[in-house]
Design brief:
Blueprint (H helix, E strand, L loop, with lengths): L3 H13 L2 H8 L3 H15 L4 E4 L2 E4 L1 H24 L9 E6 L5 H13 L8 E6 L2 H9 L5 E4 L8 E16 L6 H5 L6 E4 L4 H12 L6 E5 L2 H9 L4 E5 L4 H5 L8 E3 L5 E10 L5 H14 L2
Parallel strand pairs: 3-4, 3-5, 7-8, 7-9
Antiparallel strand pairs: 1-2, 5-11, 6-9, 6-10, 6-11
Length: 298
């Protein structure tokens, strides 16, 4: 009898493309995982992986074994996902993963509108979680999530992009004595409120600043979108944010004092992606994915 744990661990390593990612997903150490892979290779009598620089790739024997384990464990994970789709009252469930660099109120509002569009009898038990992009991919691959909203596309044969949403980005600053955003941009004393270097929004902002030959000091930097908005509202500098992320603040401006001013025209389009497992969804999930993609669009 084969050790199914060894086969499952091999399957996850092959599916995620590395021992490090697999060890995190399996909640085990890399050394323990490597030992179990070697035990499996000894039982089979063939090497299953080979080194390619820092990466590992499947050998010919590894591909053959993976073809079997994919049929074994993909069906098993789909069964687990199916059984998990109802609680003790028989309600279906829908789980969404959101990358940390997307503003929470923006996503929450879109999900709320999606749920309100469904009749009470068809509203699922909804779960929303936040993880780094790589972990979201792993959880989607393993059917632990039904959908992912991220600022980066997912390139996987097991995942498909449901929608690519364009969010117009605008320059925004606190209203200083009634000045326009153009005059604030030209003020050498006003710094930048800018996304940190690990965010896609930062790469886009840097590209825009270079093309426009805008050279300013950074007054505030963060990888939390809400913190960037707060710093801009507090007058720490000029921010570059999707207009959709400003919606709450712009709606709640009741006085001109401290109100925000934004550029009239979009500077560029920031993109976010709604992705799901590449399989035939149920009618209910298809409806929710379609409605959510519409609600995310500006």
């Amino acid at each position: 009898m084969r050790n199914f744990n060894h086969l499952y661990y091999f399957h996850i390593v092959a599916k995620l493309g590395g021992v490090t990612a697999a060890a995190k997903q399996l909640n085990t150490s890399q050394s323990s995982l490597s030992t179990q892979l070697k035990t499996l290779e000894a039982q089979i009598g063939n090497e299953l992986f080979k080194r390619d620089g820092r990466n590992i790739i499947l050998t010919k024997a590894g591909h053959s074994v993976f073809n079997f384990t994919r049929r074994m464990f993909d069906v098993a994970s789909e069964l687990d996902a199916y059984l998990a789709k109802s609680d003790h009252r028989g309600r279906s469930s829908f789980s969404i993963g959101v990358s940390p660099d997307i503003e929470r109120p923006f996503v929450t509002d879109a999900i709320s509108r999606m749920m309100q569009s469904l009749s009470a009898d068809h509203r699922p038990l909804l779960t929303q979680v936040s993880h780094p992009h790589e972990k979201l991919i792993a959880k989607l691959e393993l059917s632990e999530l039904d959908a992912v909203i991220s600022s980066q596309p997912i390139h996987s044969q097991n995942v498909k992009t449901i929608a690519e949403i364009k969010l117009p980005v605008k320059a925004v600053a606190r209203n200083i004595l009634g000045r326009s955003i153009v005059s604030i941009l030209e003020d050498a004393n006003v710094g930048l409120v800018i996304a940190s270097q690990d965010m896609r929004l930062r790469w886009e902002t840097d590209d825009y600043l270079i093309k426009r030959k805008i050279r300013k000091t950074i007054a505030f930097e963060s990888n939390v979108v809400g913190a960037l908005l707060r710093a801009t509202i507090d007058g720490l500098g000029i921010g570059f944010l999707p207009e959709a992320y400003l919606e709450h603040e712009l709606k709640n401006q009741t006085t001109k004092k401290g109100a925000l001013v934004i550029s009239r025209e979009p500077l560029w389009n920031h993109r976010i992606y709604l992705s799901a497992k590449n399989r035939a969804p149920t009618d209910e999930i298809r409806l929710m994915l379609g409605t959510l993609s519409e609600e995310l669009a500006p």
